[in-house]
Amino acid sequence: MNLSKSFEFLDPGTCKGRIHIIGCGSVGSTVAELLARFGFTNFSLYDMDTVMPHNMVNQMFTVKHVGMKKVDAVQEILCDINPENARTVKLYPNGWKDQPLDGYVFLCVDNIETRRDVVNGNMYNTFIKGMFDFRTGLTDGQHFAADWSDLHERKAFLNTMNFTHEQAKANQHLSACNVSLCVAPTVRMIANAGVANFINLIKGEHMYRQVMTDAFKLQIEPIG
Predict the structure, then answer these.
(1) 73 lies in a domain?
(2) What is the tally of structural domains in the chain?
(3) 82 with 39: CB under 8 angstroms?
């Protein structure tokens, strides 16, 4: 892959450890695509869902991916960017089921209980370097990050998850047909924030512990 436009800014070889993306829907597929364009190849993808026609609205998939497992479709996208991903990506089409984690973990699944289980199960996992969490509404997004070498940050990260899946659903924007609403600019904006945070961490630069965005008010608020 020709990285001449980005290599002086970031050598992907500085990333030691795998990149685990748990949830390959809107945010997960977008994060994977952004990272692949930096030359990263050491992905582990977790998702049990299949690409559906309505996923075209805010996910990275195209019509040719409909009916494919999301992990397979994301790998195909990554291989279209960099063919090396055909041999390095690991796929988990049954989702995250307590598989060992290391390196960097992106929590992109739409269930808060699953995210909390990942964090609780890995609170003292010294092989993890950082965790990144994402939440999206119709126009607004939230991103949380933690340097896993810092116990205070790990605990603060977990404290952002003190609510139930039902409470989260109650705050969603729903269509008349009871479909949760979220559009591509919202996803891209918060995914960009998380990828920038990840890159700052591996470059040893300042990483924001929380980022709030509103894609249509053109607002981004980094905190911490």
Answers:
(1) yes
(2) 1
(3) yes
Cβ(90)–Cβ(43) below 8 Å:
yes
Tokens of 136: 């999206």
CATH number at residue 201: 3.40.50.720
User: Do β-strands 90-92 and 103-107 pair in parallel, antiparallel, or remain unpaired?
Assistant: unpaired
Phi, psi of 57 (to 5 degrees): -65, -45
- Give the tens place of pLDDT for each residue, 48-107: 999 999 999 999 999 999 999 999 999 999 999 999 999 999 999 999 999 999 999 999
Tokens of 27: 């945010």
Q: What is the pLDDT of residues 157-185, one digit of tens each?
A: 999 999 766 666 656 666 656 667 799 99
Q: Is residue 176 part of a domain?
A: yes
Query: Could you list the residue range(s) of the whole structural domain that residue 172 is in?
Result: 14-223
- Token pair 């991903």 in the structure block, residue: 85
Structure token pair of residue 220: 């981004």
